[in-house]
């Protein structure tokens, strides 16, 4: 069973859920907005995919944050602790969806992630 973390109104999350259903892949959806996300979960996601890949700097939420909030997150490499704290406070900053299974954690939904999901289930 895969747990999918995201936002129910996110187009990419909806596409991913439709794909999972079409592929008959058992899954459970966790909506960041209604259920939130724990620091432990975000930390686990960052350890698996990296803060640079998990923090969505192309999002409207990122652009709406003031420079004083973004702090050292605009520099490379990112402050992992700062990125985690910000994503816990603003879950919309997490690149969606995040797929979690016993074998892997994957962020995003494009062809490489689809292949990785299928491979991880075999």
Task: Explain what this protein looks like in three dimensions.
The chain has 122 residues and is α+β, with helices and mostly antiparallel strands. The protein has a single domain, classed as Glutaredoxin (3-Layer(aba) Sandwich). Helix content is 49%, strand content 13%. The chain contains eight helices and four strands. It has helices at residues 11-22, 32-35, 39-49, 51-54, 60-64, 67-70, 80-89, 111-120; strands at 2-6, 27-31, 98-100, 105-107. A four-stranded mixed beta sheet has the order 2-1-3-4. α3 crosses α7. The longest helix is centred in the N-terminal third of the chain and has 12 residues, at 11-22. The protein is globular. The two termini are 12 Å apart. The model has no long low-confidence stretch (mean pLDDT 89).
Secondary structure topology:
Layout: E1 2-6, H1 11-22, E2 27-31, H2 32-35, H3 39-49, H4 51-54, H5 60-64, H6 67-70, H7 80-89, E3 98-100, E4 105-107, H8 111-120
Parallel strand pairs: 1-2
Antiparallel strand pairs: 1-3, 3-4
Helix pairs in contact: 3-7
Q: Keywords, please?
A:
122 residues; alpha+beta; Glutaredoxin; 8 helices; 4 strands
What's the Cα radius of gyration?
Answer: 14 Å
Q: What is the correct CATH architecture?
A: 3-Layer(aba) Sandwich
CATH superfamily: Glutaredoxin
Number of strands: 4
Kindly report the oligomeric state of this protein: single chain
What's the end-to-end separation, in Å?
12 Å
- Give the DSSP E fraction (strand runs of 2 or more residues): 5-15%
Number of domains: 1
Q: List the helices and strands in order.
A: EHEHHHHHHEEH
Uncertain stretches: none
Total helices: the number is 8
- Helical residue percent? 40-55%
**What topology, given as strand order, has the largest sheet?**
2-1-3-4
Largest sheet: 4 strands, mixed
The CATH first-level class comes to: Alpha Beta
What fold name stands as the CATH topology? Answer: Glutaredoxin
The average pLDDT score comes to: 89
Global shape = globular
Class from helix and strand fractions: alpha+beta
């Amino acid at each position: 069973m895969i747990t999918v973390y995201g936002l129910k109104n996110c187009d990419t999350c909806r596409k991913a859920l439709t794909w999972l259903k079409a592929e008959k892949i058992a899954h459970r959806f966790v909506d960041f907005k209604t259920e939130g996300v724990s620091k432990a979960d975000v930390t686990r996601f960052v350890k698996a995919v990296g803060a640079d890949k998990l923090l969505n700097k192309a999002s409207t939420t990122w652009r709406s944050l003031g420079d004083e909030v973004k702090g050292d997150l605009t520099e490379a490499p990112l402050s992992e602790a700062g990125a985690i704290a910000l994503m816990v406070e603003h879950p919309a900053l997490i690149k969606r969806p995040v797929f979690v299974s016993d074998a892997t954690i994957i962020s995003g939904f494009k062809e490489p992630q689809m292949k990785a999901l299928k491979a991880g289930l075999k």
